[in-house]
Amino acid sequence: MDDRQGQTQGQTQLYQPALYRILDANLDRVREGLRIIEEWCRFGLNHTDLTAECKALRQETAQWHHAALRAARDTATDPGTRLTHAQEAERSSIQQVLQANFCRVEEAMRVLEEYGKLYDGKMGSTFKQLRYRVYQLESQILSHERSQKLLRSQLYLVTSPVANLEATVEAALQGGLALVQYRAKDEDDVTRMAKATQLRELCHRYGALFIVNDRVDLALAANADGVHLGQQDVPLALARQVLGPNRLVGRSTTNPDELQRAIAEGADYVGVGPVHETPTKPGKAAAGLDYVRYAAEHCPIPWFAIGSINPTNLREVLESGGQRVAVVRSIMEADQPTLVTQYFLSQLQRH
């Protein structure tokens, strides 16, 4: 044995206890985090494939959790066990639980990838590949969550610039609203970004989807669940390219041709209207109930009738085949947004 080999071996023996404790702690983190995610895939999503992938990742991780690594554990003297952060005690939604545990798993896998190279040459490359699989799993679960929430949503609130914007939206969320679009045509970008961030945090606290109107860049910057595009906005394919495959992209349509084009382009949902003339779309003729009837027969993706729909004329939309509606003034200008939201939802669910 030459001097260099002896020196390397001596260093290995010196840092081996610390190395083993690092590997043991992070293997535990990965397995625990994956189990939390797996339970939601199994019982929350009832999704066999996603559950199976979580289980496979756990089992492949467990193969590296050797007895020697477990034996190095020393919880009593570990200073990390006494460190806490206020955010660790707060989880206001399933999304936050999932996001926290995905971050935990991904960070731990990165540690295993680097320190694992000192333990076994194959360990580093194995956890590099496992980490990529977790990234893909995260995207699949978030995409599935958004799609399922969209399918369950019957009422879609489009905001208007009111003085008490956040309070009005929260009141509607308290009434059961699960889908909000932030629309502000005349505000500057600094204001839009601040309000979009506040509304996104509010919506996610209530487990609701948050969509940004028109602006793909703002939707991305605010970490929104998607963007809603008008006929004159950027092509749907470009929005998808910028936002990625896991966020929602909606499109306004006013006639059957626009509807069929939106479906062909891969829209996740569409607006159908305006059913009646509306001041939010000045100069645009009403598409009428005939277009609602056409959508009811020909649209295979979620669609929302929109255009001056209120508690008085809701019934005629429902009788024309509408199952989902989008509203603006009926809630944004209501004295009691919570009660109005509950009324809309009760009628939609009953119908």
UniProtKB/TrEMBL annotation:
Gene Ontology MF terms in the entry: magnesium ion binding; thiamine-phosphate diphosphorylase activity
GO cellular component assignments: cytoplasm
Domain Thiamine phosphate synthase/TenI: 155-331
Cofactor needs: Mg(2+)
Catalysed reaction equations from the record: 2-(2-carboxy-4-methylthiazol-5-yl)ethyl phosphate + 4-amino-2-methyl-5-(diphosphooxymethyl)pyrimidine + 2 H(+) = thiamine phosphate + CO2 + diphosphate; 4-methyl-5-(2-phosphooxyethyl)-thiazole + 4-amino-2-methyl-5-(diphosphooxymethyl)pyrimidine + H(+) = thiamine phosphate + diphosphate; 2-[(2R,5Z)-2-carboxy-4-methylthiazol-5(2H)-ylidene]ethyl phosphate + 4-amino-2-methyl-5-(diphosphooxymethyl)pyrimidine + 2 H(+) = thiamine phosphate + CO2 + diphosphate
Protein name: Thiamine-phosphate synthase
Record: residues binding 2-[(2R,5Z)-2-carboxy-4-methylthiazol-5(2H)-ylidene]ethyl phosphate: T278, P279, T280
Cofactor descriptive note: Binds 1 Mg(2+) ion per subunit.
Binding site for Mg(2+): D214, D233
Lineage: Bacteria, Bacillati, Cyanobacteriota, Cyanophyceae, Prochlorotrichales
Gene3D superfamilies: Aldolase class I
Sorted UniProt keywords: Magnesium, Metal-binding, Thiamine biosynthesis, Transferase
PANTHER family from the UniProt entry: THIAMINE-PHOSPHATE PYROPHOSPHORYLASE (PTHR20857), THIAMINE-PHOSPHATE SYNTHASE (PTHR20857:SF15)
Cited function: Condenses 4-methyl-5-(beta-hydroxyethyl)thiazole monophosphate (THZ-P) and 2-methyl-4-amino-5-hydroxymethyl pyrimidine pyrophosphate (HMP-PP) to form thiamine monophosphate (TMP).
Organism: Prochlorothrix hollandica PCC 9006 = CALU 1027
Ranges for region Thiamine-phosphate synthase: 134-351
Enzyme nomenclature, EC number: 2.5.1.3
Gene assigned in the entry: thiE
Pathway in which the depicted protein is active: Cofactor biosynthesis; thiamine diphosphate biosynthesis; thiamine phosphate from 4-amino-2-methyl-5-diphosphomethylpyrimidine and 4-methyl-5-(2-phosphoethyl)-thiazole: step 1/1
Region annotated Unknown, chain positions: 1-133
InterPro entries xref list: Aldolase_TIM, ThiamineP_synth_sf, ThiamineP_synth_TenI, ThiD2, TMP_synthase, TMP_synthase_cyanobac_bac
Domain named ThiD2: residues: 21-139
UniProt-annotated binding residues for 4-amino-2-methyl-5-(diphosphooxymethyl)pyrimidine: Q181, Y182, R183, A184, K185, N213, S252, K281
CDD domains hit by this protein: TMP_TenI
Family: Belongs to the thiamine-phosphate synthase family.
Top EC class for this record: transferase
